[in-house]
Amino acid sequence: MKLLTAWFQIPFWKRVLGAFVLGAAVGWGVGPPAGPLFQPLGTLYVTLIKMVATPLVFFAVINAVANLHGQKSVAALGGRTFLWFAATAALAVVVALGVAHLMQPGRGLGSLTLAEGYTPREVPTPVQVLLDVVPANPFKALADGKLLQVIVFAALVGFALVKLGEKAARVRALAGEANEVMIQITRFVLEFTPLGTFGLIAALVGAYGFERLLPLGTFVLALYLACALHVVGVYGGLLLLHGLHPLRFFRGAFPAMQVAFVSSSSFASLPVSLRCAVHNLGVKQEYAAFAVPLGATIKMDGCGAIYPALTAVFVAQYFGLELSASQYFIILLASVLGSFGTAGVPGTAVVMVTLVLSSAGLPLQGIGYIIAIDRVLDMMRTLTNVTGQMLVPVLVAKEEGLLDLDVYQRAPTNVGRELEQESA
Predict the structure, then answer these.
(1) How many distinct helices (H) and strands (E) make up the chain?
(2) What per-residue confidence (pLDDT) applies to 420?
């Protein structure tokens, strides 16, 4: 019991960071066999997170819409949130293009080998994407984890509860109670984060050697640098413009950023992101429960903006093509609009790159040269995605008076100690 208490006394981020370092060391020492040996731990953790994510979003969105005091309030908040999503995505593309021209990741490479079994992805038409937003069967959408469809249906249920008023008071109360139940289950699941981190990182480091990364080392460094500049420079600058201390934000968002990096999944990181936004960053629960899940489906600064723009320049440089001013504009426009248009499409990063390259008239086979190291790239892309998914709700909440500054300014919650107290 004392050992368990001591474990919970360690801040959550330190436990996750320790598991990350230990997993990297073990994966490096064991080598390729680490994949099948430790991957099941990581797979179990990601599965547990996905298990709670869909019902958590469903009840959280119903509860949020039903408590945001009418459709006009939700529409106004939604519109401002979308504007910030688009603005930060455009800034991400600009950062990526700048880094690409500074580092020249496609120059001076020999003949790269296409990834085994690679075939270009088919980009869905705008009509197909629009039709896929509305679930033909809400229960199937829940079962399949189609998050955008779940959000649309849950929002409609929330609107209906607002319209019915006192007639649906008991249903509204039940939705709130179900939301609390899912939050409690999420607390239990989050305790597996250090174990899952160890398994995911050990398997990754064991599977990837320097020999796979060296030919594309400049591209990997360029992506990591672009994401870091966007997160620290752009996000930090926007926080300062809103009168918020960037360090406070990053301290509060750090647990979700850690989970995003090791899991490479915005969906798997969603429960932690939502918890950080409310308990560490002070975003009002009703708004956070609407904005953070929405961001997890359409706010993709890493996958939908930085990665496609950087890849487009890489492909052009590799094939010796000069990009025109109109092509740069197309890359910017396709990256920003495409991240919204491909929301909920499996393999969003690859679909986005396919969309941007085809729009700019660049060879699609260029994707096949970097797909082999996609898992390493996806870690930083997802960290950037998830950070942006928490940033925009904080900015909008500050503008709309929905941000608790006392919570924002205080030290982040020790998730482990909180779980111990709430589970007692």
Answers:
(1) 21, 0
(2) 42
- Report the alpha-carbon distance of residue 108 to residue 113 in Å, rounded: 15
Q: Dump pLDDT digits (tens) for 67-87.
A: 765 545 677 888 899 899 999
Domain assignment present for residue 16? The answer is: no
Torsion sign across C-alpha atoms 23, 197, 267, 339: negative
> Which residue(s) pair with 278 in the sheet?
none
Would 289 be classed as within a structural domain?
yes
In a domain, 6, yes or no: no
Position 211 scores a pLDDT of 60
Condensed to tens digits (0 to 9), the pLDDT of residues 224-256 reads: 999 999 999 999 999 999 999 999 999 999 999
Whole-Å CA distances, 344 to 16, 90, 130, 268, 416: 28, 20, 11, 14, 32
Tell me how long the chain is. 424
Instruction: State the pTM of this model.
Output: 0.81
Q: What is the domain count for the chain?
A: 1
What CATH number is associated with residue 330?
Answer: 1.10.3860.10
Structural domain range at position 122: 22-413
